[in-house]
Design a protein that fits this description.
By secondary structure, this protein is mostly helical. Helices cover 86% and strands 0% of the residues. The protein has one domain. The chain is globular and about 55 Å long.
């Protein structure tokens, strides 16, 4: 490889690392919130559409509350009113969290026409959230350690958080 190709590869790697850093908080926060809300829902308590609306709506409300609280807090600290640029920044910060809830929500919604049961939809939603936790855990581990084994351990640890919440749900319901 020549120097130009090496620089291009390096820029791509740095861009991926930056993207992981920007999205990690939101994806992990969103995935764990999905697991917590699914834990609170009983088995078959509502239909798939209601469950999906409750799941996405609850997380959307939490994300909006978090973003508005942050924007408001920053305005108080700087003693300046906030405008569209601050709202846009808050929305971009919230997007990874909403992305993390979209797949589990869709997996629950697919149960509505009867392709599978609500319980299967919830299990698939949990698996998707656990998968996101493990993938982002591995990615964060790779950025921190730059080696496979510690990255796998980091991914396993992060995924285990979701597995623990899923286990508690099935013990309680």
């Amino acid at each position: 490889m020549n120097d130009s190709a090496d620089e291009t590869v390096l820029r791509k790697v740095e861009a991926k690392i930056a993207r992981i850093g920007r999205n990690a908080h939101g994806v992990i926060y969103g995935s764990i919130t999905v697991m917590a809300l699914l834990l609170a829902l009983g088995h078959g308590s509502d239909g798939p559409v209601e469950t999906a609306v409750i799941l996405f709506g609850s997380i959307f409300a939490i994300v909006l509350a978090e973003a508005f609280a942050k924007i408001s807090s920053d305005a108080v600290q700087t003693r300046h009113s906030f405008g569209w640029s601050e709202i846009k920044k808050g929305w971009h910060h919230s997007a990874p969290t909403l992305a993390a809830v979209t797949v589990p929500t869709v997996l629950i919604l697919v149960a509505a026409p009867g392709l599978y049961s609500l319980d299967t939809g919830v299990a698939l939603a949990q698996a998707a959230a656990i998968g996101l936790l493990a993938i982002y855990g591995y990615s964060i581990g790779w950025v921190i350690y730059g080696r496979v084994f510690p990255s796998l351990m980091h991914g396993a640890f992060t995924g285990t958080i979701g597995c623990g919440l899923a286990g508690v749900k099935y013990l309680l319901h």
